[in-house]
Design goal:
binds NADP nicotinamide-adenine-dinucleotide phosphate; Rossmann fold; 29% strand; alpha/beta; 2 domains; Quinone Oxidoreductase, Chain A, domain 1; 10 helices; six-stranded parallel β-sheet
């Protein structure tokens, strides 16, 4: 089968399509025939050797953290899926999705939403689960609360807006000026242009800041959180001492594969409560262009690689 691998860390030129053996699932695994794989900021970090989970000893390494596809084979202990079932999954880092067939633990996998095609489904798992776990598992966001999401127009942010609204929360976002309408269409209640406006001057205190940006955006965020509220980041550990003085709970987390949560997200999508927005699609051989587009172009929603026609 074809797989897009790296033999060493480096720039886009280290990604090569190579022929490798199709793997066989262990007892608790399924083999997914991949239709499409999404592109996430972590893919370029892994390629460059800047993501600590992937080290020299893991090379050669197949990039790609999430896929849509169909079950091609299943291990002896798997009873939840049949050959041919259409599924999607956020993969654990041992397996990469930029390839024709990928292994996944059966509890990382969920049935593909009926209302999405393969491209739309591939866009969901990592970004959707990251938004879900950040808002609800780590942020404990509840109905009636107020949340500020930094980076609301990106892959994770556009899901976070919609999940928070589906939960009954009030949502403010920081976005580029020309993404304000996009965020409003997804349900955001207040849109702040991160280049020209200061969110501290505009947002009334919130229960939760969901930080997808880090740096000084994160530092300035403590000023808008109610005592007893929380700041949860996907990027860097917030300053604990200052937060403790203000009675604000802070944390940084790494999203974990979770088929049950993915199934809940699939239901929201099929109920029409959550839209999946695709910024652009590329062929597998164009992975370098796809990663560059995610980094350089103004991204609204998700970038996806087509693995099969
Ligand atoms: N810890 C984890 O498990 C985990 C999981 C997923 C993602 N992440 C990280 O979380 C971050 C977001 O991921 P993503 O997939 O959503 O990225 P993405 O699709 O590239 O989206 C980033 C968004 O942030 C916007 N942006 C840039 N600077 C901003 C600022 N100062 N204020 C507000 N918005 C700003 C961008 O808009 P413009 O194009 O208009 O600038 C873009 O819409 C990435 O750094 C990623 O590595 C971590």
């Amino acid at each position: 089968m074809q797989a897009l691998r790296i033999q060493r860390f480096g720039g886009p030129e280290v990604m090569k399509i190579e022929a490798i053996d199709r793997p066989t699932p262990a007892a608790d695994e399924v083999l997914i025939k991949v239709f499409a794989a999404s592109v996430n900021p972590v893919d370029a970090k892994m390629r460059e050797g800047k993501y600590p989970v992937v080290t020299e000893k893991d090379l050669p390494y197949v990039l790609g953290r999430d896929v849509s596809g169909e079950i091609a084979a299943a291990g002896n202990d798997v009873s939840s899926f049949l050959i041919g079932d259409e599924v999607f999954a956020f993969l654990s880092p041992e397996h990469g999705g930029y390839e024709e067939f990928v292994l996944a633990k059966s509890d990382e996998v969920a049935a593909m939403p009926k209302s999405l095609d393969a491209i739309g489904a591939a866009a969901v798992p990592l970004a959707g689960i990251t938004a879900w776990q950040g808002l609800f598992d780590h942020g404990s966001l509840r109905s009636g609360q107020r949340v500020l999401i930094h980076g609301g127009a990106g892959g994770v942010g556009h899901f976070a807006i919609q999940f928070a609204k589906a939960k009954g929360a009030w949502v403010a976002v920081t976005v580029s000026a020309d993404d304000k309408e996009f965020a409003a269409d997804l349900g955001a209640d207040q849109m702040i242009d991160y280049k020209l406006e200061r969110f501290e001057d505009l947002v009334e205190p919130v229960d939760l800041v969901f930080d997808l940006i880090g740096g000084e955006t994160q530092q300035r965020s403590l000023a808008v959180i109610k005592p007893g509220g929380a700041l949860i980041s996907t990027l860097q550990e917030p300053h604990k001492a200052r937060a403790a003085e203000l009675n604000i709970r802070v944390g940084r987390y790494t999203a974990q594969p979770n088929g049950a949560q993915l199934q809940e997200i699939a239901e929201l999508i099929d109920q029409g409560k959550v839209k999946v927005v695709i910024a652009s699609t590329f062929e597998l051989r164009e992975a370098a262009e796809a990663q560059a587009a995610l980094r350089d172009k103004h991204t609204r929603g998700k970038v996806v690689l087509k693995v099969v026609d």
